[in-house]
Amino acid sequence: MLNFVSPVTENHTYNNFSMEEKTPVAKINLRGNLDNKDFATKAGKILGMILPKESCSTSTNENISCLWLGPNEWLLVSNDLVTKDNNDYEIEQALFDGISKTNLGSVTNVTDHYTIFKLTGSNIFEILSKGCPFNFNSDNFGDDKVVQTVLNHVDVIIHKKTKDEVNIYVRRSFSNYLWLWIKDSSTFL
User: Fold this and answer.
1) Domain 25-109 in this protein, CATH class
2) Where are the domains of the chain?
3) Given this chain, do its domains 25-109 and 114-186 carry the same CATH topology?
4) Is the pTM of this model over 0.85?
5) Which of 124, 115, 170 lies closest to 12, judged by CA?
6) Which residues contact 131 (CB under 8 A, 6 or more apart)?
7) Counting Cβ atoms within 10 Å, is residue 80 exposed (0-12), middle (13-18) or buried (19+)?
């Protein structure tokens, strides 16, 4: 069940940098083997897209963004906010019936597990580099790429939408801590 109590209750803007919590957004973890044609076909039909095979890549359609997390793991993120009176996810049920019940893979609702920080501005990666070992200047980390890494000792998923827009997925229990760290780091540019 989606938790509508947001862990972060403010927006922050400073020196051409802004951040806000992007909530409520449905998130589903999907696991399966792409070499299994039944899994790949069924997931593709249900989602209306081909699951990304390449590391750090994404696929998107009108309703869902699919983030590659590993050779057999994806994070499906709704492109729409969820309303309080619409807390059932048709796609989750369709995936559960088509994938989990047939033992082709697993489907787990992780909506309450993660919160999303939307960062915008021209200095995002300068701020993130202060607490992250990942090389954001790599030629392989272009637009619409995703990476799992550590940011100031917290496990995160970073989705680079463009050079000026990034979504950070962080476990809800660490969200206040990381929010304050990013906020403080943005003031020392």
Assistant:
1) alpha beta
2) 25-109, 114-186
3) no
4) yes
5) 124
6) 151, 152, 153, 181, 185
7) exposed
